[in-house]
Structure formats: C-alpha cells, structure tokens
Specification:
This protein is mainly alpha-helical. The protein is 80% helix and 0% strand. α4 packs antiparallel against α13 and α5 packs across α12. The longest helix is centred in the last third of the chain and has 37 residues. The N terminus is likely disordered.
Length: 295
C-alpha cells in the first residue's frame, strides 16, 4: 500500500529528480492527485479538494522542511568538494537526516489525508481493493521472475545515480550490476508488509476512531506499522545500498564530481529561494491585512 498512496512519495522533494525543483513541484501536484485517483477513482469534488490540499501542504513543506534539506545538501557538497574518501557510515548519516526531515514533512499532510479518507464511499473502497490486488500481482510476477527483478532494479539504481553524477563508468556500472545480483529486493517481505497495511487500513473503517488512529499513525509513526520481517530485510538491504553508493562516490571521475557538486548546489539554492519566496509572500499577505489599499 506504500503509505496508502495519500499525499505521499515526498522523497522526490528531498532528492529531486527533475532538473528544477519548481518543475518537481508541478509534477508532484499532478502525480499525487493521479496516484490517489488510480486507487480511489475520485469524483470531481474530491479531485478539487486533493489538488488544493496538496498545493497548500507543499507550500508548508517549502517553509518548514526545505531549510533543513538545503542545510544537509550544503553539508554533503562540502564533503564531495573535499575529495576525501566517503564511507557507508557517512551515507547512512545523511540518510538518517533526510529520513528525519521526510517524516517531519509527512506530518504536514496528515490533516488533509484525514479529511479525504472520511469522504470515501463504499464503491471507492472496493476500487482500492481491486487496484491493490493488481499491484500485488505485479510484485508477485517480479518474485517469480528473479532475473527480471534484478534487471529492473539495476535500471532503477543506475538512473538514480546518473541523475546526480552523469553517465556511469564501466567500473561503476559493474559495481551496480554486482550489487543487484547479490542483493535481491526483499519482495516476499514487501508483499506481506503491504498486505498487513492494507488489511489494517480496511479494518479501520469499522469506526471513525479507528480510522483516525490509523491515518495518524501512518503519517506520524509509519515505521511502527511495518511488519518486523520486512523491517529487518529492508534495513539490511539499505545497509548494503549505502556501501554501494560509497563505492561509486569513491570512484568519481573529475567530470562526475563537478557535475555532482553543481547539481547539489543548484538543489540547495533552489530550495532556499523557494523558502524565501514563500516567506516574502506571507509577509506581503500580512501587510495587506493592515494596508489593504496600498498594494
């Protein structure tokens, strides 16, 4: 269920894939609404609510979350500029910081999610069940086709890395290939975890109190909801992934290092600018409250 697909997948904001964060924002508004519609087949009123809520919540993200992300990006930029060896522990530290920021951002979306879920109809719950089952079948295909799953994961990781450093060298490409062959995604545990969360979500509709509790926990303490076997498998996989990223960074060519520094710096500056633009907009609104005819 991947955090219910409600106002989620915020990670693109913290590690943006788009060439500019303002484009990422526009993409987010469309992607989140489309993703929710896929699972719940929203009516026109719900669609308008989601688009408005997402825009307002993303504005809060800019103000409350972007400064922390920019600060961590600045720290990483200094590390890359230093040309010192990068350890998996340093990668893990940055991930921990980004994860902390991510979960603070996730909390911002909870009120909107609570309102949205309260308005779901029985037909929309049935749509969710069908879409969830369809996605589960797709994961089951990957589980039964390990070679295809390995190839798919290689493409995903390669794209994730190349966004930041440009094309991989032959040596870096081999590192990624070896990683994906040895470290297979814990699909079985992932499927069980999705099924657990889906059941808890559907069971929560038995009462308003259960529903509010589920959504609150989903957005404020998500990791406590994970199935233990999946959590252990995911943590182990992540540890190995950090080792891969450290190995790739320690084999950067000068052109790749410069590309990475430019991308990190651009992301940080864009976030700082969007934060400041939001602050200026808020200040102007406050001033017009006092001097409505002066603006």
């Amino acid at each position: 269920m991947k955090k219910l697909s409600l106002f989620l997948n915020l990670s693109f904001f913290f590690i943006p894939a788009c060439s500019r964060i303002d484009l990422a924002e526009a993409w987010a508004n469309m992607y989140i609404a489309d993703h929710i519609d896929q699972y719940f087949d929203m009516n026109s009123m719900q669609s308008l609510f989601v688009k408005k809520a997402v825009k307002e919540d993303i504005d809060k993200i800019k103000t409350e979350i972007f400064p922390g992300v920019a600060a961590e990006l600045d720290r990483i930029e200094l590390l890359i500029k230093s040309k010192t060896a990068v350890s998996s522990e340093q990668i893990s530290r940055s991930h921990t910081e980004f994860k902390k920021i991510f979960y603070e951002g996730l909390k911002i979306f909870e009120p909107s999610a609570q309102k949205f879920v309260q308005k779901l109809s029985n037909d929309q719950i049935e749509t969710f069940k069908k879409e969830f089952k369809k996605k589960s079948l797709e994961l089951a295909v990957d589980l039964e086709n390990p070679d295809g799953a390995i190839e798919k994961r290689f493409d995903v990781i390669r794209n994730q890395i190349e966004i930041w450093i440009g094309s991989l060298t032959i040596e870096q490409r081999l590192l990624v290939q070896n990683f994906t062959k040895v470290n297979v995604l814990p699909l079985k545990e992932l499927i069980h975890n999705r099924e657990k969360l889906s059941k808890e979500f559907l069971d929560s509709f038995k009462s308003s109190a259960d529903q509010r509790k589920f959504i609150n926990t989903l957005f404020t303490n998500y990791e406590s909801m994970l199935e233990p076997a999946y959590r252990r498998a995911a943590e182990f996989d992540l540890k190995k992934y950090f080792e891969l990223i450290a190995s790739v960074l320690n084999k950067l060519e000068p052109k790749q290092r410069n590309h990475l520094i430019v991308i990190i710096s651009e992301r940080s500056q864009e976030m700082k600018k969007m934060f400041q633009d939001n602050q200026d907009k808020k200040e102007k609104v406050r001033l017009t409250d006092f001097f409505p005819h002066s603006f």
